[in-house]
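Throughout our pipeline, every protein is held as a single compact record rather than as scattered files. Such a record has a labelled line for the sequence and another for the backbone structure tokens. This encoding replaces a full spatial description with a residue-level series of whole-number codes. For reference, a complete record is included directly beneath this paragraph.
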Amino acid sequence: MLFGLGRAPAYAGLLGGALASVGGMLLIHFWIAGRERFFFIEAFGCWMVGCIPGALAYQALIDRAARSRRAR
């Protein structure tokens, strides 16, 4: 979506989104594995924490792309 708006390069969204989705789902899987009950807010908070590496990678790639544009 951000790429379509011209605010971010496509590779930043692809890499950041992939890391965020996989990281969030893996953390939820390991957090609730083997449990019979869990709260939705607990799973949501766990997913948010798991998405942090993807968000950080996305931000780093955007910053790198912005620096390369300014250098031109």
